[in-house]
Amino acid sequence: MSIVILVALFFVNGLGINLPEMGQLPPNAVDFETVQRLALKKAQAEWPGCQPGTVVPYVDEAGNTVAYMFHFRTDGKQFPDYEQVVADILEERQSLTVNTDLRRWRSKYAHLLISARYDRTPIVCYGYGTSEYYAVAPRARARAKAVLGNDVYLSRIYFVCPVVFLEFSNQAGARVIYSAHFERVWYSRADFQQFVSESKRAAGVGQAEPAAIAHYQQEWQVALNRDYSHWNEVYIPGADRAPFYDWSYGCTPTSAAMVMGYIDRVGNYGRLVDWYWQRWDMVEGEWDKQIPNVQRECALRMYTDTTTGGTYIGAIAQGLYVVAWDNGYPSFEVVEEQGTPGNDWAWATIVQEFDAGYPMVWSAIWAIHSLAGYGYRTPEKDLYVHNTWWQPAEWWHYSGNDRSHVAAVHPAGADPQCLELLYPLGDTFYNSFGRGETLQVGETVRVRWNNFNHPGDWVAIDISFDAGRTWTFLDSVPDTGYYNWHIAESCLARDSVRLRLRQYQNGSLTAADGTFGCFRLVREPLAPKYLAPPSGLPVTSPPVVLLIDSTRTDFDSVYFVVWKGTGDTVWRQNGLSRRCTIPEEVLIYNQTFKWMCRAHNRFGWGDFGAVWTFRVAFRPGVEETQSPGKSQLAGRTIWQLKSGKIELDAGSEAVVYNAAGEKVRVLKANGQERIFWDLRDENGNRVQAGMYFLKTGPGLAGAVRKLILLK
C-alpha cells in the first residue's frame, strides 16, 4: 500500500521522476511487509537513526517483481524530494578524490537491495549512496524524451543482467529501454526479453539449482531473526589506499585496474599504473577523464568487447597475469575459483585470500558484473567491494541465484625503487575537469616526487597537452625528488596538461607515475595573494584597506571589486596600487562585504582570485560639515574643506594617513592643549586633494576621523 501511495505522489505532483510499476507477484514471493521489516531492521543497525525514503520496485524481464531498492537518509533528517537527492549525490560524487578512503566515506544517503523472492538471497547489497533511480534515471529520461516526446514516464526498472535496465513509455504505448550505461537500447519488450535470454545462455546462467533454492530459503529464516548490530570486518592491509576508478571499457577491466592500482600503491610495483588519460567512452557516450593506463591494458588482455563492456569469465585470471607480465612482473600468480552451491560459492577461498592480504576481482555471474574486492564481513558473508558504477563502495552478499568467480592476485617480484608524484597532481577529483593547479607561463615550477629513499639513476619527464592521449619528452634529470621546470614563454595557454615521470635504474624502467587529472597553463598572471583584512573577520575601525602581496613583479596593474549581497557592486579600483582603501561612505554598519581582485600583464587580465569577506564592525561617518579656515574635528566626522588648518582636541599625538593607508604626517602637541594640522606632509609640502584619515588618542587607540580635502 505504501508503494502505491508513493507512486501517486511522485506522478501526480510531478516531483522528479515517477516510481516504476510494481510488477506481478513472482513464484516464491515474499510479501512486502516482510521485506520492509527486514530492510528497516538492517538499516537501523547499519545506519542508526536513519530515516526511510523512497522504495523502488525492480522487475525481471517478464515483469515479475524480483527485488525492492530501499533508500535512507543517514543523518536523521527527513528524506527530501527527488531534485534535492539528485543534487546532493552529484555534489558528493564530485567531492571524491583519488585518495578518498571509501571505507570511511559517508553519504547523506544509503541504499539497501532486498529480494522479493524466497528462492533468492535476502539482502543482495547495501552501502552509502543511492541507486540508479536517482543516479541514472534523469539522464535516461532526457534520452527517452528525444525519442518518445515529452510525455514519457518511467514504466519499469529491470533487475536482470547486467543488473539494471530502465524502461520509459509514453501515453501512446511506445517504449524505449536503456541499459544503465546506455550502451544498448531496445524499442520493445519482446526484443529486450530475447536479448536477456541470449545473454543468460551465453553466460551459462540458468535456473537456480535445488540446492541453491534450499540455501536461500534457509538464509531467509536466518535473516529475519538475525541481530544485525554485531558483525566482524576484515580488510586487506592498506585497503584505505585502494583506488576508485571511473567505469571505462567495461566493469571487469575497471575492477581489474582497481586491483592493480592497489598493488601499485601499497606494494613496490610502480610500473602497473604509469599515467592517466582522458578518453571518449563510446559505450556511455561521455568523456572518462582520469583513466589509468592499466585499465586499457586489462581491457586488451581480457579481450573485453569495448562496444558493450562485456568480458568472458575465463579471460579474467589470464588477463591479470599477462598484464603483470607485460609490465615486467613475470612472477605474479592468480588464484581463481568458480563459486557454486556445491562449494558454498567459494567462500572458503574468499576468506583465505583476504586473510592472506590479497585483493581480488570478484564476479557475480548471476548479475554479469565484476567488482574489486578488499575485505569481508561475518556472520553475513558479505564482500567489501569497490563498485564500478554510481555507488563507490558497497557490501555484496557472496551468493546469488547462480555462480560466482574469484580471481585473487598474488603479486611478486617487487622492485626496491618506487616513485610517487607529489606536485602537480592535476585535478584529483573523481571524473572531474578544471579543478587542477593553474601554472603560469614564464614561471619556474618545482615538480616534486617521492622516491621513498630508494632513488633510481634518473627520471624521464614527459608532458601531454591533450589530456594524456599523446606525450612529448620534456627533460631527463637525476632522481633527486624534484625538478625545477621553467615554463618557457613560448608555451601556449592550455587547459588539458599532464605530466608523466619514469624512473630508471641501470637502464631499466623501475617505476612511473603521473598527474591524476589535468592542470592548466596560463599566460595571464595568476590571481594575487590576499593579505588583509583576514577573510571572514570583522573590521573594527576605519579605514578598510584591502591588501595583496606587494612582492610579485609579474603583473603591472591590479583590479579590485567590492560588493555586498548577491552582486551589488559598491566599489571598484583599477591601477598600479597593491592596496585598495574603500571609501567610508559606501560602507554600512554590520554589513558583510565581499571582494576579490585580479592582475594584468602584457598578455592580458588573469582570473579573479578567491572571494574574501569582511564585516563592518564600526559605524561609518554620520556627520558632514564644511568650514573655511580653522576647523575643529569632534567625534566621528566626514570633514570637507579646501584650505586652512585642522585643530584637534586629541591629547599628545595624532597620525594622518592617505587613502592608500600610507602615513603622511605625525602630529605632536608639544605641550599645547591642542594639535594642529596645516594640511602639509612631513616634508612641508601641501598635500593633494583627496581623502585622509586622522588617528588620535592615547597610544593612537582613540577615534579615527576622516577628512576630504577639496581642490
From TrEMBL:
Superkingdom of origin organism: Bacteria
Protein name according to UniProt: Uncharacterized protein
Organism: candidate division WOR-3 bacterium
